[in-house]
Structure formats: structure tokens, C-alpha cells
Amino acid sequence: GAGVSQSPSNKVTEKGKDVELRCDPISGHTALYWYRQSLGQGLEFLIYFQGNSAPDKSGLPSDRFSAERTGGSVSTLTIQRTQQEDSAVYLCASSLVLSGNEQFFGPGTRLTVL
Amino acid sequence: SQKIEQNSEALNIQEGKTATLTCNYTNYSPAYLQWYRQDPGRGPVFLLLIRENEKEKRKERLKVTFDTTLKQSLFHITASQPADSATYLCALDRLMDTGRRALTFGSGTRLQVQP
């Protein structure tokens, strides 16, 4: 596709349920990032993938959060046993190389945990 | 602790004037700094990147300065237009504990250009 796509665009779930958020990066981009943005706040780094290297998970807020990237392309962010404080917009970005190059962002998934 | 500060108050200016947004940082030694624009309900869009050895970068009506001594970047939009109204985010690269580099974003400044 022409840009980064994310699905779903909106997700409402009940506290305690698991959710999966999907990111389809720009074809050929080797680096993929997940961020979280709470209302009126900046972007909080969660995790990134670079090529076939082990992902950098240092930004994940708890062990309820995990992500995988299959075949170096599509990525899925999974949140287990969701809590109300997980409510936020989850943004995915991709870039050609890890350092320096501009990041291309998807439209985000708005997660609401009731 | 590491901190990136952008003015949380909205900046309101008249059309045609120059908008100047500030990004200050502490306890970082970034190799480069980026500016992004974010419209409501959308992901950020890259605008400019400036490296630590560059003092100034221009792109059309945009100008970015980077002062590593003051630990500050200024983002200017000349001849501003109502269409420039958005939130502007600065982002610094940083060396993480894992030895890799990643971007850290400021919380952004909302710009409102009045016609």
C-alpha cells in the first residue's frame, strides 16, 4: 500500500479482555515502531523491530503487552487482561532504516477499555 | 532525568505572521532532531530533520534551528496560513539502555493560525 495502515481504527473492550492491534508497514521498510499516545500527551515509545534482529521491548509498560512481526512485515501488538489505563491511541510507524530516517505513521487505533 | 519540553499552551497567531515553536531538552545528546506535524485523529507526519552538526535547515516556509549548547531547537513557519493549524511535535534520538537508538517525542505545541 501507499502508506502505513492499522486496524481496527477503533476498539472498545471490557476490562480484563485481550486485544490485538494490527499494523501493516510500508513495503520495504525494515524498521517498525509501536507508540502509545494518551489524550493531549506526546508519543510513548513501546517497542521496535529492525529487520531480523530481536525486537527492542524496553518501552513496554508491563508484561501484559507483547508484539510480534511476522515475515518482517505485518506486526501485531497484543494487550492481555486490558486495564482502563490502557485506553489510548496506539500508533505504528515504519522507516527505511533504524536511525535518522523519517518515520511514517499510520492513523492509529483508538483503544477504549470500559 | 531526560526531559523534552515543548510549550503546552497553544500558540495563537494571525495569518501571515511567523510562528515560532520551541523545543528544549535536558540530559540528552541527540545526534539529530526531527519535527512532526499532527492533525486531530491522525498520525504524525514528518516535516524536517536536523543533525547535531547543522545549525539551520530550511524547507519551503519552514525553518529549524538546532543549538546543542543551549539544548534547544526552534521551529519557524513564515507567512503562516490557517492550514498550518495543527500540533507540532519535536523528537530527539536517544541511546537506549539496550545500546540501540530510538526517537523520544515531546508532548507537542498546538498552533492556531487565525484568518
Going by CATH, what is the homologous superfamily of chain A? Immunoglobulins
Biggest interface goes to: A-B, 25 and 27 residues
Mean pLDDT of chain A: 91
Which word captures the global form of chain A? globular
Relative helix content of chain A? under 10%
Specify the structural class of chain A. mainly beta
CATH fold type of chain A:
Immunoglobulin-like
- Radius of gyration from the alpha-carbon trace of chain A, in angstroms: 13 Å
Q: Radius of gyration of chain B in whole Å, from Cα?
A: 14 Å
Poorly predicted ranges of chain B: none
What can be said about the biggest beta sheet of chain B?
6 strands, mixed
Count of discrete domains of chain B: 1
Number of strands of chain A: 10
Query: CA-to-CA gap between the ends of chain B?
Result: 41 Å
Q: Determine the number of helices of chain A (DSSP H or I, runs of at least 4 residues).
A: 0
Low-confidence stretches of chain A: none
The major β-sheet of chain A equals: 6 strands, mixed
CATH class of chain B, named Mainly Beta
Please give the CATH class of chain A: Mainly Beta
The oligomeric status of these chains comes to heterodimer
Give a brief description.
Chain A is mainly beta and 114 residues long. Helices cover 0% and strands 46% of the residues of chain A. In chain A, the strands form 2 sheets. In chain A, strands 2, 4, 5, 8, 9 and 10 form a 6-stranded mixed beta sheet that branches. A 4-stranded antiparallel beta sheet of chain A has the order 1-3-7-6, with no helix packed on it.
Question: How would you characterize this protein structure?
Answer:
The complex is a heterodimer of chains A (114) and B (115). With 114 residues, chain A is mainly β. Chain A has one domain (5-98, 105-113): Immunoglobulin-like, CATH 2.60.40. Chain A has strands at residues 5-7, 10-13, 19-24, 31-37, 43-50, 65-69, 75-79, 88-95, 104-105, 109-113. In chain A, strands 2, 4, 5, 8, 9 and 10 form a 6-stranded mixed β-sheet that branches. Chain A has a 4-stranded antiparallel β-sheet with strand order 1-3-7-6, with no helix packed on it. The N and C termini of chain A lie far apart (33 Å). The relative contact order of chain A is 0.34. Chain B has one domain (3-114): Immunoglobulins (Immunoglobulin-like), CATH 2.60.40.10. Helix content of chain B is 0%, strand content 58%. Chain B has no helices and 11 strands. In chain B, strands 2, 4, 5, 9, 10 and 11 form a 6-stranded mixed β-sheet that branches. In chain B, a hairpin with a 2-residue loop joins strand 6 and strand 7 (62-67). Chain B starts with a strand and ends with a strand. The model of chain B has no long low-confidence stretch (mean pLDDT 92). At the A-B interface, strand 5 and strand 9 of A face strand 5, strand 9 and strand 10 of B.
